[in-house]
Every structure is written in C-alpha cells, then in structure tokens.
Amino acid sequence: MQDLISYKSQYKNELIENIIPFWEKNSPDKKYGGYFTCLDRRGKVFDTDKFMWLQGRQLWFFSMICNRIERRQSWIDVALSGARFMERYGTDKAGNWYFSLTREGKPLVQPYNIFSDCFACMGFAEFYKTTREKVYRDIALKTFRNIQARSTNPKAVYNKRYPGTRPLKNFSLPMIMCNLSLILEEIIGSDEADRTVTPLLHEIMDVFYQKQSGLITESVAPDGSFCDCFEGRVVNPGHVNEAMWFIMDLAVRYNDQALMRQTVDILLRSIHFGWDEQFGGIFYFRDIKGYPPQQLEWDQKLWWVHIETLIALLKGYRLTGDVRCKEWFIRLHDYTWAHFRDKEYPEWYGYLNRQGDPLLTLKGGKWKGCFHVPRGLYEIWKMLEQSETAT
User: Fold this and answer.
1) What single string gives the DSSP state of each residue in 146-183?
2) Which of 137, 173, 361, 376 has its CB 3.0 to 4.6 Å from that of 128, i.e. a possible disulfide?
3) Which residues, in sequence order, are bridge partners of residue 209?
4) How far is residue 239's CA from residue 226's CA, in Å, rounded to a whole number?
C-alpha cells in the first residue's frame, strides 16, 4: 500500500473541503426540515420533493462523520434536521417508509420500495450513536424488524408481477442487509448480527453467484437456479463490486481467507466484464450472455458504480496484496477523477454518456444524494491513512 499512500490527501481534501461543505450549505431545508437533494451544478435547488431513501442516507452520513471524524455542532444540526423530519412525516400507520414526500412532508409515493426502510434504519441507527437518545434507537430497531418481516415479499401489495408465473428474487436486499446488520450490531447484538449475516452470505456467494461465468446476476429463481430471461440475465457490475467490499469486511470479521479470496476473484471478473474497452469506465448494465440489455441506459457511466468499485479494489489490495486490484484501482482512479469530478463547482457529476461526457450537470436528484461520493472518499481516505500509520 505504500505506493498508493500519496493518494490519501487527494481523497481527504476533496471530502472535507468540497463535498461536505456542498451538502451542508445547499441541502438542509431550514423551513420544514429534512433535505433538498435536487441540486443543480452550482447547488441551487431545482425541485423540492423529498425522497426518503436519500433522507435516510444523508442522516446516516452526517451522523457518521460526527461519530468518526469530529463531533462538530453544525454537522449534528444537519443530522438532527433530517431525523426530526423523517420521524414526523416518514412512515405510514404501519411503520413503512414512504418513497417520497412533498417539501412540507405530505406523502407523494406509497411505501413500495423497501430500500426507503433500509436507509431510514441505517440513518437512525447511526444517529442513535451520535445522540444516545432512545427514541432513535427504537425507530431503527422497529424499522429493522419490519424489513425482516417484509424480506420475502418486499413490495407486498405494490408488486406488479403476476403471481406464480415467473417468480424471481433480487440480489439487492441480501447485499444491503449484510452491511445494515453490522451497522445495527450495537442495537441488535453481535449474535443476532451474525445469525442474520450467515444466510445472506450463502445467498450472495452461492445462490446469486453463477459458477459457469464466475459472475453474480441481479435476479434468480426462488430455488437459486438461473432464469434465462431479461431480468435473469442482468449483471449490474456496480452492485456486485459494492457487495464484494461489504463481504470483504465480513471475511475479516470471521477470519475467512477462502471467502476473502472468493470476493477478490469475483470483483476482478466483474470489473473486467463491466469495463468499456473502447471509452473506459464501467457499464451500468450488461447481459450475462452478451445479448442486448433491456435497459436503455445500459452503457451510461454512473458515479456510484465507479466510487464503490474504487473502495472494493483498494480494500482487496490492502487485504490480500493482489497486485491486479492495485492496477485496476489506479486505472479506475484516473478515469473517475478525470470524468466525474466537476473542475469548476463542488460535488461530482452523476451521469455520463458512454464517451465519458456529462449527460446531466445536476449534483443531486431523485437518486443521487449525499451518500456514495462522500462515503467513498471517506472509506478510501481512511484505508490509506491506516496503511500509512501501519508502515
């Protein structure tokens, strides 16, 4: 890692001097609470709707930096604004988190998406560590129990699939639950965290994993078999790579060298499969058989795909010494910083075309908020700092 430590200040300074101030200045709604996430290139609000999974993500992030970087009052205030807004307006009577609300907190879109719950849970669990107020612990725990209860049918009455014809289960929820369970460890206890994670590891590394290709698909049949249809053939390299760094953390937790090796092998196959040899960067979607993907945005280059892959590559190199991870990290670092970072205004672009030019100049919207870029910069800075300290 010694040869990569020079990158440390680049990631740290970008986070502390650019990204955090952008969100702290432009995102909080000082009138109604919560966060604006639809921000243009300069940080001006262009839409006031509030999307609950982005509210939860920003609550988590500002709580996390209070807990791990500095207990700064302005950061606590940002987190508190989100927590109070979410607590007051975020759920229906059954405790399910809405997908979106008006600026004032009136429901707009029903709670069809379980990831609203996942990120609310994540946010309140971290905010509890900041405040030690029982109310936030209780919200996190209640939401976690609700996620567990809904996990076999996440969309419930909002599922538009016809029942029984082609049932599929999706990779995203087991992936995020691996990470979420550890964030909640202080609340649910280490034994329950381990009991929750164990079957999820099996799902990801055995069920969704396709042995013939060595890749992970987004959907499989309920028995784990490959489903040769549009949905069953989809590979999302960003999801795979993000999941691998979650599981690397679990491999360290359980001192499982075989699991660590498997995660690195899958990561390297995934980035090779997803890499655009003509223009550089990682495709958003690919078909595992090489057929035309159904997603029209398949060849776009997205911010979160690249930053999550950078985390995974650096973590893989740090934990295993596999030089291929280092080589890919440097290659991807150069592409990411050259194309996603806005050289004139703070924060990063989210959406590039295949050639690497911005499709949209927004810095936040319905899907992009205060999460992947700052989390990625933080994770990479801290890994390099730890390696520097160890030398």
Assistant:
1) HHHHHTTSTTGGG--SPTTTS--EESHHHHHHHHHHHH
2) 137
3) 216
4) 18
Q: How many CA atoms lie within 13 A of 83 on its CB side?
A: 29
Give the tens place of pLDDT for each residue, 248-281: 999 999 999 999 999 999 999 999 999 999 999 9
Question: What residues in the chain have per-residue pLDDT under 70?
Answer: 391
User: What pLDDT sits at residue 391?
Assistant: 65
Residues near 277 by beta carbon (within 8 Å), at least 6 away in sequence: none
Residue in 184, 232, 230 with CA at minimum distance from that of residue 207? 232
How would you write 202-232 as a 3-class SS string?
HHHHHHCEECCCCEECCEECCCCCCCCCHHH
Contact 82, 36 (CB under 8 A): no
Measured N-to-C along each axis, helices 237-253 and 303-320 cross at an angle, to the nearest 10 degrees, of 30
Give 208's Cβ-side CA count (13 Å radius): 28
Alpha helices in 41-101 (DSSP H): 52-68, 73-89
Alpha carbons 86 and 13: distance in angstroms, whole number: 31
Q: CA dist 390 to 2, 91, 318, 383, 387, Å? A: 10, 45, 12, 11, 5
pLDDT digits (tens, 9 = 90+) for 40-86: 999 999 999 999 999 999 999 999 999 999 999 999 999 999 999 99
- pLDDT value, residue 153: 87
What was the pLDDT predicted at 159?
87
Do the Cβ atoms of 50 and 102 come closer than 8 Å?
yes
> Helix 323-339 crosses helix 303-320 at what angle (to 10 degrees)?
150
Q: Which two tokens mark 118?
A: 């996942």
Q: Distance between CA 375 and CA 373 in Å, rounded?
A: 6
How many residues are there in the chain? 391
Cα–Cα distance, 230 to 298 (Å, whole number) = 13
Structural domains present in the chain: 163-360 (1.50.10.10)
Q: How far is CA 143 from CA 138, 242, 261, 279, in A?
A: 8, 23, 34, 43
Name 295's Cβ contacts closer than 8 Å, sequence gap at least 6.
Answer: 234, 284, 285
* Residue 111: burial class (beta carbons within 10 Å; 0-12, 13-18, 19+): buried
